[in-house]
């Protein structure tokens, strides 16, 4: 079984983690990449949520960008989908695509439909699982087929699980595969899910 190492943005701030919209200071994008934030209890101050004022409806078409500070070959995404004390999990993100770039201009552009200088990467599961209907840690993973080092990564999240007005994600962590390099012959296929702790 492959082993993975978590990679984090240069700093947990709006400079290095961006989203198309947010619901204010308690729901900024970098709160979802910060490993010091709780995965249970209130979502306020511990997760990202898109704009929730309902005009327009921000439950669809949200970009989530991460700057790792230097190029890294990301091979897996660890996530905990949105919830609030185990409730409101229908506002968690659902269908998504994953992209890599080495362009600072691309990283700064947050219009959903603009993919200039981004490369779409293959993922083994393009749907973020809905969080368990309980106030518990619920780790999920999507394996990435990628052999290129990118500094910037993007999730384009198309919708949520049926909730109104906004999207909510508790944690997003990008991971490299231990021992993997662009010249290696390591290849993994098929749908894989792990419920192991994050390194």
What would you say this structure looks like, in words?
The protein has 199 residues and is mostly beta strands. Helix content is 3%, strand content 32%. The protein contains one helix and ten strands. Strands 1, 2, 3, 4, 5, 6, 7, 8, 9 and 10 form a ten-stranded antiparallel sheet that branches. The model is unreliable at 185-199 (pLDDT under 50).
Approximately how much beta-strand content do the residues carry?
25-35%
Discrete helix count: 1
Mean pLDDT: 92
Largest sheet: 10 strands, antiparallel
Low-pLDDT stretches:
185-199
Please identify the oligomeric state: single chain
Number of strands: 10
Helix share, percent: under 10%
Structural class based on helices, strands and sheet pairing: mainly beta
- Tell me the span between the first and last alpha carbons: 14 Å
Shape: globular
What is the gyration radius calculated from CA atoms? 16 Å
SSE string: EEEEEEHEEEE
State the main characteristics.
199 residues; ten-stranded antiparallel beta sheet; 1 helix; 10 strands; 3% helix; globular; disordered C terminus
How is this structure best summarized?
3% of the residues lie in helices and 32% in strands.
Q: How would you summarize the topology of this molecule?
A:
Blueprint: E1 4-7, E2 17-19, E3 48-49, E4 62-72, E5 74-81, E6 96-101, H1 104-108, E7 119-123, E8 140-145, E9 150-157, E10 168-177
Antiparallel strand pairs: 1-10, 2-4, 3-10, 4-9, 5-8, 5-10, 6-7, 6-9, 7-8
């Amino acid at each position: 079984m492959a082993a993975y190492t978590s990679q984090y943005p240069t700093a947990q701030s709006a400079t290095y983690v961006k989203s198309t919209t947010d619901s204010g200071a308690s729901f900024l994008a970098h709160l979802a990449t910060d490993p010091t934030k709780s995965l249970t209890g209130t979502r306020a101050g511990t997760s990202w949520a898109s704009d929730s004022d309902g005009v327009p409806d921000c439950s669809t078409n949200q970009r989530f960008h991460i700057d790792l500070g230097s190029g890294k070959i990301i091979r897996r995404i660890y996530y905990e989908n949105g919830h609030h004390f185990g409730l409101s999990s229908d506002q968690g993100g659902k269908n998504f695509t994953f992209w890599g770039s080495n362009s600072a201009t691309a990283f700064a552009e947050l219009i959903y439909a603009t993919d200039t200088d981004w490369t779409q990467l293959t993922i083994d599961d393009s749907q973020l699982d809905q969080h368990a209907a309980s106030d518990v840690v619920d780790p999920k993973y999507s394996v990435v087929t990628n052999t290129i080092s990118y500094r910037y990564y993007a999730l384009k999240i198309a919708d949520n699980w049926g909730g109104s007005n906004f999207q909510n994600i508790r944690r997003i962590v990008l991971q490299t595969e231990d021992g993997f390099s662009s010249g290696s012959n390591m290849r993994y296929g098929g749908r894989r899910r792990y419920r192991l702790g994050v390194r």
